[in-house]
Write a structure and sequence with these properties.
Layout lengths: L1 E5 L5 H10 L7 E9 L4 H14 L4 E11 L1 H16 L4 E4 L3 H9 L14
Helix pairs in contact: 2-3
């Protein structure tokens, strides 16, 4: 698995107004995953998501366009990240999962978070 992050780093103005604006007005950060996302790469996924959540503002998109395989343990990590973001008033969505990835997301009830499928906040 390889990871590419495009964080939306907060400006001073965003930090000052974060309580008034909420995350809906901020551009989302993107975490793009590539290849096989499975147990042997779980720590990289945890570290990448943790860093992105900690150092960015706004919502997070997990881009699954280049993912060939994703296992249940990895989706569990993504679901925990979703829950953490939700507690902060932020949201996680998924971009372009393969059919297999969509099935695995469905095991966790996360298909409503796929862009273009009526992603619900």
């Amino acid at each position: 698995m390889s990871v590419a992050m495009i964080p939306n780093l907060p400006s001073d103005a965003q930090v000052a107004s974060a309580g008034r604006l909420g995350s809906a007005r901020l551009a989302p950060s993107v975490l793009a995953l590539h290849g096989y996302v499975e147990a042997s790469t779980a720590q990289l996924l945890v570290d990448s998501m943790s860093s992105l959540i900690e150092w960015s503002v706004g919502d997070v998109i997990v881009d699954l366009t280049e993912v060939e395989f994703i296992d249940i343990a990895s989706v569990r990590v993504l679901d925990l990240a979703r829950q953490l973001l939700w507690r902060e008033g932020r949201y996680l969505t998924f971009r372009a999962p393969s059919k297999l990835a969509a099935v695995v997301l469905g095991l966790f009830g996360l298909t409503s978070l796929i862009e273009g499928k009526g992603a619900q906040r």
